[in-house]
Amino acid sequence: MPRDNMASLIQRVARQARITFRSPAGPAFGENLHRLQQLLDEVRAEDLHLAPRGPSAAAAAAGGGLPWAGVVPPVSYMHICETESFSMGVFLLRSGACIPLHDHPGMNGMLKVLYGTLRIACMDTLPPAAAAAAPPPAAGPCHRALFRSRQHYTPASPPCLLSPHTDNLHQIDAVDGPAAFLDILAPPYDPQHGRDCHYYRLLEGPPPGPGAEQPGLPREVWLMETPQASDFWCGGEPYPGPRVCL
């Protein structure tokens, strides 16, 4: 059964997010962010009336007139709330689905797994002057990045955090079954204010020679900006959990 405080918990998360991201450059930001992280770590799937599953057939309605309309998408999104300073919602991934490597320009973010297992690869962009070698052959502009980590996250894991400068690029894969995560982005994506989502492909260098070990992490890599992959899209479906009022 859902816990008695489920409504107050997600409401408290939203209120703390509003407090935290109202002044991200203020002196109390670190303390407020820590408090938000603690609250987010308490959230479980049952608090949002969710049971383990992938995107539903209803999510296909978000396809509109596009070629894949009517097909259950690999990922769907449940909108919970949004203000000028942050947005919050739930992403549902079917088994084996991948949210490709993408960025969050000038944004903070927090991700808490609700069910399933996610493999999350995190990277930082590096200034052009940091390039130690020429990029590999590619069909488009390349960017230097630091591949910081690749870890598995479950409901028992603490939230995965990103900032405008650290772990700002990430790829999310559902491992061994469907998965879902609660997502907070601050401020929300807004192309008119320079916060559009860009996708990238990792350009690995030549394979190591015989007997050589695979390079560990962190390590510098090259990325090429790409269009959104044709096999990735995100549908929309109703959020079934407690209402959030801000």
UniProtKB/TrEMBL annotation:
Name listed for the protein in its UniProt record: AEDO dioxygenase
GO MF terms, alphabetically ordered: metal ion binding; oxidoreductase activity, acting on single donors with incorporation of molecular oxygen, incorporation of two atoms of oxygen
Keyword tRNA-binding: no
GO cellular component: mitochondrion
Keyword annotations: Dioxygenase, Iron, Metal-binding, Oxidoreductase
Record bears the keyword Lyase: no
Gene (UniProt): Ado
SUPFAM superfamilies per the UniProt record, alphabetical: RmlC-like cupins
Cross-referenced Pfam families: PCO_ADO
Coiled coil (residue ranges): none
Gene3D superfamilies: Jelly Rolls (2.60.120.10)
